[in-house]
Amino acid sequence: RGPAPPGPPQIPIIGNILPEEAPWEGIRQFSLKYGPVITLRVLSTNIYAVNTVAAAAELCEVRSSVYSQRNPMKMLDLCGFNEGILFETNVTHLRQARKLVASGIGPRELDKYRPQLRAHIVTFLGHILHAPEQFLDHIRDLPIGIMLEIVYGYKTTEKKDPFILGADILVHNYAKASAISDFLVNWLPFMAYIPSWVPGAGFQKTALAWKTQGDTYTEETFQYVLKSVANGTAVPSVVSKALESKEAYKRHVIAKSAMQMVSGGADTTVSASETFILAMLLHPEVQKLAHEEIDRVVGTERLPTYADRPNLPYIEAIMKEALRWHPPVPVVPRTSTKDDVYEGYFLPEGSFIMINFWAMLHNDEAFPEPMSFKPERWLDVQLTKEIDPLGIAFGFGRRECPGKIMAIELVFTVFVNILAVFDIVKVRDANGEEITPPENYTNGSITAPLPFKADFKVRSTQALQVLQQDLEEVGR
Ligand code: HEM
Predict the structure, then answer these.
(1) How many Å is the maximal CA-CA distance in the chain?
(2) ∠ CA 95-100-103 to the nearest 5 degrees?
(3) pLDDT tens, position by position, 100-120
(4) How far apart, in whole angstroms, are the C-alpha atoms of residue 376 and residue 318?
(5) Cα(67)–Cα(158) distance, rounded to whole angstroms?
(6) Sign (positive/negative) of CA torsion 6, 7, 11, 14?
(7) Which atom of ligand 1 sits closest to the CA of residue 84?
(8) Is 434 exposed, middle or buried (0-12, 13-18, 19+ CB in 10 A)?
(9) Span from the CA of 399 to the centroid of ligand 1 (angstroms)
(10) Alpha-carbon distance 140 to 147, whole Å?
(11) Which residues of 92-104 are buried (b: 16+ CB within 10 A; e: fewer)?
(12) For 360-384, what is the mean pLDDT?
């Protein structure tokens, strides 16, 4: 056994009060004083926060048999976000779910989906061209459209497609239900047994409404594939392949994991893309260097593709720095499944383990001026596990993000294509003054910039022609 890991002093009953704004930064501050793994308590729940790469690698990789479970917080459970893949606690079902996702979007599958990916990105550039002021909507719809096609073989035909709108609602509900600071029931799980008419238990009604929305979406999208398989119109997709597979997948594993691929793939890549736009607005000098690199390497006769990635080190540096500066997923929960001792400290079975990627990516020894956006820190650097944002921001061990390869391809291709065609500039107010957006972020478990304004100017007539040609080619 041994003592609990050290941590800040606790107030009786209440425990520790975590800041509502960016609690992961508050936890990083505590870890500077108390060490890599610290104890926090919120009401009756102990949290063990893991703040360094070395500790996360030891627990999640070396001791993966103890730290690879993820129990849903109570509100997520009530909202039906349990099961599937993200919060699946049944070991057999989780194994099936991981297999389903890995075989659905592995590197070989991605090669096949590349034409669809390109069509979606070119169409997205067209939307930015025609309605730049709605860029946040376009960014939001892009990954949902891609995921719907890959996961269900469903082609969206219009901006207000019901499956896009439904996914938007799910993503919003998930972000709210999983916010660390909202919903007291997450910290006082016994509240889940209080009927919804009792004052203060209004979350029960919210949870029921969100569960109904989630269940309906999961079923409707699944039925779409079942029907298209039955009438012979199915396009190969993650779900159609799972239905035809020899593996005896449980129905709910397919339906729920599929839904979570859409919602998990959407919000994270949206966050990364919005962070990128914000960074370009705040750092025009970075954007200028990026434009120069693209013009030099890709030229102006065609749009860049993912194959250009090895030749574009500065765009690579922008991508790494965006994922470090504001990782879309700042922390993730795990649940330990055995009593364990780490560096002499005791972590009891069933503990709530919080892996704090934010703290790892804002470690001021590894990253001087960690709060500043500085892509140049990635040029001529010896990448190690300790510092590589692509090795940290997607998690560790058996529960590492199964969409990682696809996510990197998607965000890189989106960033480089926006840069190839557009100048991202600040909008001006009525007096002609430039509006500089603040660096304000949401506090959900997937964090993204609060809505801000930006304008997109086509860089040249050549860029416009190339885009128009590609738009004609993809014909969407
Ligand atoms: C920039 C984009 C993305 C980031 C930063 C990201 C990050 C993460 C992180 C940190 C986790 C938890 C890992 C852990 O517990 O150690 C995760 C899990 C997951 N991600 Fe991603 N992700 C991204 C994109 C995607 C995409 C495109 C998909 C599409 C399929 C996806 C699907 C999932 C799923 C299904 C899980 C749950 C896996 C499990 O619990 O076993 N993610 N992601």
Answers:
(1) 69
(2) 115
(3) 999 899 888 889 899 999 999
(4) 8
(5) 43
(6) negative
(7) 35
(8) exposed
(9) 9
(10) 12
(11) ebbebbbbbbebb
(12) 96
Identify the residue whose tokens are 């497609």.
Answer: 161
Q: What is the pTM of this model?
A: 0.95
Cα distance from N-terminal residue to C-terminal residue, the chain: 62
Buried b or exposed e, range 239-262, using 16+ CB within 10 angstroms: bbbbbeeeeebeeebbbbbbbbbb
Look-up of token digits 């599958």: 109
Q: What is the pLDDT of residues 125-149, one digit of tens each?
A: 999 999 999 999 999 999 999 999 9
CA distance linking residue 260 with residue 86, whole number of Å:
7
Query: How many residues in total does the chain contain?
Result: 476
- The CA-CA-CA angle for residues 110, 296, 112, to 5°, reads 10
- To test the ligand 1 pocket, which listed residue (60, 238, 394, 400) has its Cβ within 8 A of the most ligand atoms? 394
The angle formed by the CA atoms of residues 121, 474 and 406, to the nearest 5 degrees, is 35
Q: How far is the CA of 403 from the centre of ligand 1 (A)?
A: 6
Q: Look at the block and give the residue holding tokens 């339906």.
A: 255
> Backbone phi, then psi, for 315, in 5-degree steps?
-65, -40
**Rounded Cα distance, 245 and 239, in Å:** 10
60 marked ligand binding residue: no
Amino acid at the residue 23: P
HSE toward the beta carbon, residue 25, CA cutoff 13 A: 13
**What is the residue-wise DSSP string for 231-284?**
TT-PPP-HHHHHHHSSS---HHHHHHHHHHHHHHHHHHHHHHHHHHHHHHHH-H
75 CA distance to ligand 1 middle (Å): 20
User: Partners of 353 in the beta sheet?
Assistant: 48, 334
Rg of the chain over Cα atoms, rounded to whole angstroms, equals: 23
Tokens matching residue 111: 């090669």
Question: ipTM score of the complex?
Answer: 0.99
